[in-house]
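Re: export button greyed out
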Amino acid sequence: MDTLLYLTRRLLQALAVILIVTVVVFCLLHALPGGPARGILGPQATAEQITAFNHEQGLDRPLPVQYVHYLGTLLQGDLGTSYTLNEAVSRLIEQRLPKTLLLTVLSAFVGLLLAIPLGMWQAVRRNKPADYVITTLSFVAYSTPVYFLGLVLVLVFTQALRWFPSQAPQGETLGQVVADPVALVLPVVTGAASMVAVFSRYMRASTLENLSEDYVRTARAGGSRQRAILWRHVLRNSLTPVVAMLGYYVPVLFGGALVVEQLFNYPGMGLLFWNAAQSSDYPVLLGCVLVISVATVVGTLLADVVQRIVDPRVKAGRA
Amino acid sequence: MSVLEIESLGVSFTTETGDVPAVRGVSLRVRPGETLALVGESGSGKSTVALAAMGLLPGSARVSGRVSLGGTEVVGAPEDVLARLRGRTASMVFQEPATALDPLSRVGAQIAEVIRNHRPVSRADAAAEAVGLLRRVGIPEPEKRASAFPFQLSGGQRQRVVIAMAIANSPDLLIADEPTTALDVTVQAEILDLLRGLAADSGTGVLLVTHNMGVVADFADRVAVMLDGKVVESGPVEEVLLRPAHEYTRRLLGAVPRLAVEELPGIATPGVAETGLAEAGVAKPGAAGPGVAGPGAEGPGVAKPGLAKPGLTDHGVAKPGFSKPGVAETGLAEAGVAKPGAAGPGVAEPGGVEPGAVRPGVAGPGAVGPGVAKPGLAKPGVAKPAGAEPGIAKPGGVEPGVAQSGSARDIEDAPVVELRDVSVRFGRARRTVRALQDVSLTVAPGETVGLVGESGSGKSTAARVALGLVAPASGAVSLFGADLGRVRGRRRRALLSGVGVVLQDPVASLDARMSVGECVAEPLRVHRRGMSAAERRARVAEVLELVRLPAELAGRGPRELSGGQRQRVSLARALVLRPRLLVADEPTSALDVSVQRTVLDVIAELQRDLGFACLFVSHDLAVVQQFAQRVVVLRDGRVEEHGPTMTTLLRPRTEYTRRLVAAVPVPDPVVQRRRRGERRASLTAGGTEATA
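Workaround output, generated via the alternate export path:
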């Protein structure tokens, strides 16, 4: 009951945030150079043509009215039409989003799978050679631009070693993409690298903090061994703040996808966004912005819910 | 055969600035069934000894010497040998029950973990055993509680869980490191009863690390006193606490604020004399007589007619007598147990009383307290101007008797702060917490009012209301005659600049990025805009001198100072605007007793000189008893009772206050043993009443 109430409240809050996002996107749409008419009709269009277009599209009506109209079309899943691809933006996103989700979720999963034990191990071996080596590598990985890292990986693994193809799977559907896992390796690794760097740092700090907590001493005083203390107590306690960070990391993941998809020619949202930006295809750009914003809101919501499950104190409003 | 044997233990910590020795050549032993108390102030190395005994010192510690637990050597032992010892041969109870348990594991599981660490028990059996242990440590509905998370339990219950973990495998030795320091007195008494019972039942030896002499008197068989990493004195508890041989022990005991307690007639204990005083205070000189039964109590001196002079407020009379309870009490108790030889002067010294003042009064061993009180009492009490009685106006002790004269001077003035039917609520809807309900209290000019109660009783909230930091949901607050609820803007700021604040934690309440001088000058920058930098510097130097800090400290950072110095910086900051009211919220509870003593002395002396009123929030009844003329007891956000300190704390009208007072352990093993018995008896009586 309490949980249901909480979920309803958080969902309403999320909706409010998304509504604000639509306002921002709407304003951006209207701030386009020359307005949407110039964008669609091109630089050669006459003033009459533009006036006619604006009237036809309802662009001469007051802004609030237009906003309500815009919201209405959004609710119907209409995000406008691409200037260059001549296709509904919603349809483009519908095709690309699952692939990007696959890439980002896989990257995040692989990244966390490496980052969490690495961070814990570093904390346990604090200020010993292993800690220094991993810390150095994390900083290198974190400060290397994704595109550069990707290029290096391509050079090493496709040109020199020839282990993996240089292109991501080109399949139309998700099934076709998954059917070619070998080709997915490099994009996922590239996407996961910075994730490992950042989250192993979080995990290291969080674990260190927990290792110095009194409850660890209590467990040791009760005769528990280091390994048991780590897995039974420290891991869970250290994970809670990391989980919270994950929600805020969603836009970063999408940002990474932008580069990775372009680099490996992977037909996802990132590539769509990239190409749209190259050709000033504003409806597509803003559609992507909207989708990524919603994904971020959903990501933080999920992180909150997960944290509530992991940490009973959150539910009681004590932490 | 001892369960714990420590021989010439040395511990030093490696830091960036070199090795810091923490323990130097300590030798101790704890025999089965015996409780050894390890006492000392912070930094004396007592906790380090306890951790060394468990092999729990951090990696930066270098250990020498021998520590043997049940015959196994601990120093240098590999981790798996230690793991087998910990929780089975010896186990430990820690200071902070709030953080000692894993917040994300259910308490039953945490207890079961300790069981399964040492015995091949199935999960289900361990869980069942954990429930049994919870029952044994007195947790109600243990089946249900076993699946609770630590945050769902109170501090006392959490400490019971930690104790359940510690006794899960019936260890030979229980190490308790300040087990009750973080708890309320009533809970402290229960936890001590529990530990004592468990140790007695199973013959477990106990190493009790504490700074609280009352706890020592209540619990220990033997005492070892530590100073700078060495044991300076050890012996049976009666010897060490009543006839301390080492100068440091005497000083330490002398600094302990002692709760004056009412005792049964016929036993010459401190309470007798003090009751006499209180009686006299309420202008019944005759009543002092019957109360004074023992040989040492010197009834006549107390009951002198001068005391009961008209115009005396009762607390005015009673107070000074209690400003030396340390002296009176011990001396009298000695007389009571018929060992007069050791008493008077020996105990008087650590009490901080200057010899000159004591000597004339010391007629017999027990007469010290009243003897000193006698002359001073009458005079300031009858509202003579301050300083009329130089013998009393010494810096040595807390001297409310003199401060009293300040309050007598302008007693007809309006109260500096008045709370009328104030209610405060936090949170909304179902989560609403009624922090205060219809609380009324006043502080008159120059007067000190003590605000006492258990944690959560609302005493800090009441102080914050007086400071204008919390707006009451209903009721009115008047500060210096103005309605705080109505005054806004500049006038409000000006009004509030008349209030100084000292808070509990001197580390957290001073900005680490400011120098001491800047910290003290800040109120001047805010409230005295016209002041030139030179004037400000001069004023800062002036107040630093007032609180007895050298002027050079102004350039230092707060972190470079000791706890007591920092708290005096807080005090200087509070006084820099010459406030008419000082709000002190647990100003000394984070400090060692000897430091607490000096800080309280400074406050008392300044109060006498500057005449500010004081709202003094504390959970420590002994400190309040020495410091405040009137006391307000809060319970669950309501005023439980209030009145003159001596009347209220000596003869409480309500059961709650009685329990509160009874739970405070006094640092005299003989007296404390009897008080414990009485408290127990009254609890059982109360229990049967409740069930009947």
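Chain B has four domains: 4-255, 270-409, 417-498+579-653, 512-568. The button fix ships in the next patch.
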